[in-house]
Amino acid sequence: MLFNSKHFIVFFPVVVGLYFLMPKKLRQPWLLCASYYFYMNWNAAYALLILGITLVSYVSGRLIGGKRGSGKARLPMVVCVLVSLGVLFTFKYLQFAVGNINRVLSAAGNPLRLPDTLGLVLPVGISFYTFQALGYVVDVYRGDTPAERNFIRYALFVSFFPQLVAGPIERSRNLLRQLEEPREFDYDSAKNGLLLMLWGYFEKMWIADRAAVLVDQIYDGYAAYPAGLLVAGTVLFAIQIYCDFGGYSHIAIGAAQVLGIRLMDNFRQPYFSRSIKEFWARWHISLSTWFRDYVYIPLGGNRRGKFRTYGNLLVTFLLSGLWHGASWHYVVWGGLNGCYQVIGRMTAGIRARLRGRLHIREESRLLHFGQIAVTFVLADFAWLFFRADGMGQALAMIRQVIVNHVFLEPFFNGSFFCLGLSGLGVFQLFLSIAVLFAVDLLHERKVSLRRWCARRHIAVRWAIYMAVMTAFVVLLIQNYGRPAAEFIYFQF
């Protein structure tokens, strides 16, 4: 079930209304049933898969909790990790591994071939709920959280519908604790949650879906387009994926807030970052911190010398790239982000000395702007590999930009307005991007629009709410009859 579908517009109010009307002891089972119904709308059979991951991690947590402090606690933790990663590998990476093995065999002249048609369909959200369950088991093993005894509550933790298929990847010490006691209805929490959901719909339907039309057209026909359009398409993809995934996260966090549950923030104005390191502290925060806590730090983090630190960073980001997709261009994307951070650490002293010699102050606005611009260019170059269909297309597009020197002409001869969006559609897209930039800039300066609205006179406040709702209705009318566009991160 998609958040931007008619089905969800009916599903969500029914779930929320019945949740607050029924007795407290029935609320957790009700949310669990609603979550499984939500997931089964994609493929009912794969509900057995999430149930299996839930059972394995629940039993492992109980066994670890009963043997904590002894050497016997390690075995159920290792078994759970191996089983969970084995399931993830089978559905997500087995086809990729078989294809690469066959290519190596072919290059070596070996006639042996492994069967490369397995017929497995990637279950929606498998990477997210698997990592959430694994994080819980490791936390129990480390003693960071107690083993959950209530199976209904734990099953709801793994399958909670707002963040089930694309995160945020929640930690047990945050979400499980909140699930212990069902919340009473809170007007302010519900209001703020609904406003956050509306902002998420704005990001997804007004910006991401419109930008996708231009991006898809440019990437699908890249060989026929000049350098200027290829660069524009890649910049628009940076905005598209931010609004697509950020929109999903805001809808998920808002929906949970309506139910009285606070999920962790997943984005904090990432394109205002002044370094790639800072970018990854602001982008997909739940995944970045998951890899930090369960991969980077266990590998040694930055505690074993600078060269070991560089290696740990590269391994972590290569794995992050592979997590996003079973293809080499995702690995290259992750590797690029890892290399950026290694180079940033290696050159930190040189850059500091250079700023000193040039008498450039750290608080200089010009310096900040330059750092933000450079960070965006680096991140956007990496996004090219993420968006491309494969390494061949990514390299061909880079070559096309270098060879073809036509940059500005497509924006003056009307070519940019022949990419699938009408002139009005392009105008609406760029107006919406301007609104996004303004809101992110205010948030960067610690100005909350929701808190600002809450302090206005009731007439002004409700005029703003009605304007937002009217814009949402207009958007629904404009999209009437069109199939709801999936969120990009559903494929991961």
SSE string, helices as H and strands as E: HHHHHHHHHHHHHHHHHHH
Name the structural class. Answer: mainly alpha
- The percent of residues in helical segments reads 55-70%
Mean pLDDT: 90
Number of helices: 19
What general outline do the C-alpha atoms trace? globular
- Largest sheet at a glance? none
Count all strands and give the number. 0
Oligomer: single chain
Tell me the domain tally: 3
The share of residues in extended strands comes to: under 5%
Would you identify the regions where 5 or more consecutive residues have pLDDT less than 50?
none
Q: What Rg do the Cα atoms give?
A: 24 Å
Distance between the termini: 16 Å
Please give a structural write-up.
This protein has helices at residues 6-21, 24-40, 47-66, 74-107, 126-142, 151-159, 172-179, 187-220, 227-258, 276-282, 285-296, 306-324, 328-346, 348-357, 365-387, 391-403, 423-444, 449-454, 458-478. It folds into three domains: 26-182, no CATH class; 187-267 and 418-492, no CATH class; 276-387, no CATH class. It is 69% helix and 0% strand. Helix 1 (6-21) packs antiparallel against helix 2 (24-40), helix 6 (151-159) crosses helix 7 and helix 9 crosses helix 16. It starts with 5 loop residues before the first helix and ends in a 14-residue tail after the last helix. The chain is globular. It is mainly α.
